[in-house]
Structure formats: structure tokens, C-alpha cells
């Protein structure tokens, strides 16, 4: 049985600049086709605009306030909001509140640095 507690999972910085704690993925569990992580952004911080060639994502906001951008669409988001991010869509999230923005990231297939393409340096494929 694979059980991970958020407090016991080490943090690392993703290619887009967010700090994440990977709760379940192929690297630390029996899960093979998806991943679950918690991301954190400090007040005023934002992820670099990016997309994933193969991965679809769901962000679920647990704490804080932010501004989600997918393509040309912008929306304010907060606790309880779930955001669908299809593969190939350029996206970014910015912390617009006074406290840390925390959100869950569900990825299928699981998150890999190699599938993350920074939009400001590479043409979308």
C-alpha cells in the first residue's frame, strides 16, 4: 500500500518555476500512468508560460488566490476551483493574493520535465 503524507515529501522546482511536492507517481509508488503533486507559489510569483506535449493536467486550488491563463483566456481562481488544462495549451498561473497559493496538480501521463516546453523559448508543436 502506497501512502505519502505531504509533510514527508521533499520539494523540488519544476521546469516552469513552481515548487512542487510529488505525492504519488511512478518515482515513488505503484502508480504508473498519472501523478499527483502539490504546487506552491509565493505571493507575486507566477509559473513560466509553458505547455505539455502529451500530458493533460488538472489544477485544484486548495489555498490562496490566483490568476489562471490558458491560451488567451484569463480567470481569477481560488479555493475549490478545478482547472482543466489540455495537452498543447500554453498556460500559466500567478499568485495574486497576500499568502502562498497552494494547488494540487494531477497529471496524466505523470509529470516529466521532458514533457514541459517553455512557451517563451520554443514554438508550440
Give structural attributes.
six-stranded antiparallel beta sheet, three-stranded antiparallel beta sheet, 0% helix, Jelly Rolls, 125 residues, mainly beta, disordered C terminus
Describe this structure in words.
There is one protein chain. This protein is mostly beta strands. It has one domain: Jelly Rolls (Sandwich). Helices cover 0% and strands 46% of the residues. The protein has strands spanning 11-13, 19-24, 35-41, 50-52, 56-63, 66-70, 73-77, 82-85, 91-95, 101-108, 116-118. The strands form three sheets. The chain has a six-stranded antiparallel β-sheet with strand order 1-2-3-10-5-8, with no helix packed on it. Strands 7-6-9 form a three-stranded antiparallel β-sheet, with no helix packed on it. The protein has a two-stranded antiparallel sheet with strand order 4-11. A hairpin with a 5-residue loop joins strand 1 and strand 2. The relative contact order is 0.27.
Task: Describe the SSE topology.
Layout: E1 11-13, E2 19-24, E3 35-41, E4 50-52, E5 56-63, E6 66-70, E7 73-77, E8 82-85, E9 91-95, E10 101-108, E11 116-118
Antiparallel strand pairs: 1-2, 2-3, 3-10, 4-11, 5-8, 5-10, 6-7, 6-9
CATH superfamily: Jelly Rolls
What is the overall number of helices?
Answer: 0
Order of helices and strands: EEEEEEEEEEE
Strand-pairing-aware structural class: mainly beta
Main sheet: strand order: 1-2-3-10-5-8
Proportion of residues in extended strands? over 45%
Low-confidence stretches: 121-125
Characterize the overall form: globular
- The CATH class designation is Mainly Beta
Amino acid at each position: 500500500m502506497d501512502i505519502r503524507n505531504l509533510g514527508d515529501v521533499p520539494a523540488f522546482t519544476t521546469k516552469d518555476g513552481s515548487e512542487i511536492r510529488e505525492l504519488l507517481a511512478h518515482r515513488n509508488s505503484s502508480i504508473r500512468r498519472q501523478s499527483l503533486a502539490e504546487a506552491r507559489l509565493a505571493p507575486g510569483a507566477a509559473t513560466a508560460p509553458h505547455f505539455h506535449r502529451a500530458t493533460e493536467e488538472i489544477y485544484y486550488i486548495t489555498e490562496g488566490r490566483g490568476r489562471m491563463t490558458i491560451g488567451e483566456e484569463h480567470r481569477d481562481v481560488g479555493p475549490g476551483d478545478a482547472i482543466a488544462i489540455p495537452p498543447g495549451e500554453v498556460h500559466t498561473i500567478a499568485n495574486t493574493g497576500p499568502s502562498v497559493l497552494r494547488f494540487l496538480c494531477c497529471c496524466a501521463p505523470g509529470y516529466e520535465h521532458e514533457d514541459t516546453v517553455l512557451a517563451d523559448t520554443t514554438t508550440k508543436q
